[in-house]
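Format notes (please read before filing issues)

Several people have asked whether sequences and C-alpha cells are stored in separate files. They are not. Every record keeps both together, in the order shown below: the sequence lines, then the C-alpha cell lines. Line labels are part of the format and must not be stripped during preprocessing.
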Amino acid sequence: MEAQTLVALPIVLAVEISTGETPARLSLSRDEAAELAAHVAEDLHKLVPQVAQARLALAGALFDAAELLRPGFPVWATLDELARRVPRGHLENVVAFGSHEGRMPAQPLEPDLTYADGPMRFLPLSLLVPEALAESLSEQLEVELVGRGEAGQRTSDALIRQLGIPLEHVRYFSRNDVLALTCVQYEHVNLAPLWILLEAALLTPYREESTMSARGLPLRYAEGKVHAQSPDAWLRSQTSESAQRAHDLAGIVFELRQYAALLDAHGVPLRLEGNNVEAIEGGLIEHLAEVDPGFDPPALFVHEAPGLGVVALTVAQRGEGGAARALAHGYPLASQSLGALATLLAERYGTAADLHALGRVVLDAQGRLGAPATPLH
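Then the structure lines:
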C-alpha cells in the first residue's frame, strides 16, 4: 500500500570536481553512503522543512548527466524501487545504498567508466513523498534548490574526504535543473536539434518529434529511436556543384558521429531512414542492390575527407565501360568500428575486405556516393 501512495521526487547532489582531478572510484561504500545521506537529510530539512515528511533515498554513486538522463530514468527508477522495499522508519526514514565488495546493489546504479572524465558528477537522490504533499513539496524544491541549494559544510567535507580529491562546488539540483543544464550545454556547442530529440525521448516518448541538424540533415524521433536521413539520400536533395556536395557530405557524417555518440550515452538508438538499413555497433549500413553476376566482382572503396579521415565505405561493381554500380554504403560512426564494418560488408557481398582508398569523396554522375569508373592500381 505504501509504495502505491508515495510519489517520488527526483533530485541530485551535483559535484564539480577541481580541474585536473579525477576520483579514484565512482561509488561509495555502504557506510560512506549512510554517512553522506545523514548530512544530505540535514541540508534538505534546512532548505525545505517539509522534507521531514518524506523518505530520503540516496545512491552512493557518481554519474555523468547522460547516464541519468535516459528514457525511463532508470537510475532513479531503480533507486525508488529499492527505497520502497525498506520498512518505513529505517534509519530515521533516510535510506542509503552503497557498494559492497565493489558493486552497487543493482546494475543501473553502477556508473559507467566510459563517462568518468567529466568535470561534473551527479549523485542521485529521491524523496518519496505522500501523494497529498507531492505537488507542494515539488514546487518548493524547484524554487529553493536552484536559489540556495549549496550543500552544507559537513556534506562537502564528507565527500572530499570520501573521494580523496578537492571539489569546486557541491550543490543540490532538481532533475528539471539537470535537464535545463544539459540543454544549455548542447545548445552552446550547436547541438540544439539533438536536445529536441532527447527531450522527446525523455519526457514525451509516446510522441513523434522532427527536426533538422545544423547542417540540414532531417532527423526524427519515433518509438524510442532517432531516425536520420541517410547521407546518400541527403546527397540526392542537394543542388550545389559536385565538389561542394562532397565537402558538405563530410560535414553531415561528422554530425552523425556526434549525434550517435551522444545518443548512445543517453541510451537512445540512432537509425537511418529506409527499409534497407542496418545498424551495427559503431556504424550504419545502407543496402542498395544485390550483386549482379554480369558485372565485375564487388570491391570495397573508402571515401575520405581532410580532418575527418574515413567518411564512408562503398561496395561497388564495375560493368561494361568501367561504370561503377554501388551495392551498399557503410558509415563508421566510431573510430574502432571501421574494421568490423569492412569485414561485414565484404562477407555480405562476397568480396575481400581489402580497402581501396580514394583519398577523397567520390560522387557518381547523379551526385551520389559512388566509385571511380576506372580500376585503381
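For reference, the curators noted about this record: DSSP finds eleven helices and 15 strands in the chain. The mean pLDDT is 91.
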